[in-house]
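Troubleshooting: if your tokenizer reports a length mismatch, compare your output against this known-good record of 494 residues.
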Amino acid sequence: MSHLPILQVIIPLLAAPLCIVFNNRRIAWFVALCATWASFGVSLLIAQQVLQSGALSYDIGGWPAPWGIDYYVDSLNAFVLLIVTGISALALPYANRSVEQEIDPRSQPYFYSLLLVCLAGLLGISITGDAFNMYVFLELSSLSSYALIGMGPRRRALTAAYQYLVMGTIGATFILIGIGLLYSLTGSLNIQDISYQLHANNIIGSGNRTLLTAFAFITVGLSLKLALFPLHLWLPNAYTYAPSVITIFLASTATKVAIYMLLRFCYCVVGSESIFQLTLGQIVLLPSLAAIIVSSVVAIFQYDIKRMLAYSSIAQIGYITLGLSMSNHSGLSAAILHMFNHALMKGLLFMTMGAVSYSVGSVYLTDFRGLGRRMPFTMGAFIVGGLSLMGIPMTAGFVSKWMLVQAAIELGWWDVVILILIGSLLAVIYIWRVVETAYFNPLLELEEEEIGEAPLSLLIPMWLMVIANIYFGINSAIPVEFAQQAATLLLGGM
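Known-good structure output:
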């Protein structure tokens, strides 16, 4: 039990080469499945320990921080670990049939190996307490993501992967420069020790130019990684042309981990009472509002439904960063909770797209004609995901959006409240386009064979996500408690 933090990263990292060693697509899938479920089990145990006894600390190799690398788990990253491992545990059963159709059989062992490397990188970012180690894991997850996106079934996947590589590399370089500047100021790479050194030497609030520059580099670099508007240009193509399982996985986890990094650097290094939080609010507020409105409007005019949902993801990221810009407990709690809820709703919606692609071979709007009758379980799941995306009561999306509205009301930001509601109404429009086509347009006339429902291996994970969206919309006590504890932690420092 004392080694749980290191097991969280070691399990997928050791399982990755096994997929290539066996060089069999079915064995590779089974190894990846076992690794993801074991990682999910470890994250549940870690979360239980954090709730019962507080934060956990694990010194790698017995070297205490700040000399050695420390794995530090509190309520914030325990919550992020649950998101990442939970989504991966549902994505792997889904992957069996989906990957068989979309990926060449000879490449499938490499595909699962890269997926596990990406998972290990995201978990490492979430759990490490060392800034440079965080960057190393970021690069690990990013490099594997580029390759995974490039393995998509359409040729444009390579262009999407290259675009993501260029923008991701720029973002990672900015982050590394920022970390290097922090090291030059403090002589430490441990996040807690960096914060201590900055406060002990009265660097915080002194207008130190090196600190201002470090903060600027880290903020811009992480904004690229989390696809904050207008630094989002890599995301629509990456989500549209990636294999279905990778779209599900990245849309639900990668941007959330980048947001976690922004939270960790801004609140735990600089501190909630610093002028930097006011600056962060000013920097993030307008792009967040623009993301909510502009991306939702652009989504309305998309005919590739995966691309439509990709632009919707940019809008949902806007909701999360809007909560961060408020810098009050309610807004921060709403932002952290929406990270969890967005993973549920967007994971579900992209699962439905994978099922439609499997049965129909395309996810263009015209191909949805009559699917309400031919794929009733898939389209029923899409409706639930759409309702959660809109923020309809008794769905997970409603809870975090309602908390966000309350936080804006607390600050007297009535114009922001109106924009949040407008964003939800725009979501109604683009979700309704798909529902109308699927249920109210005549059936497709197929010459060769009838379109049928997706196989059970796709439907079961999908409907588990449906249940999660409804359950956490009715009984949201556990995620709300995690979010509020994490917000209290961040506003109080490390």
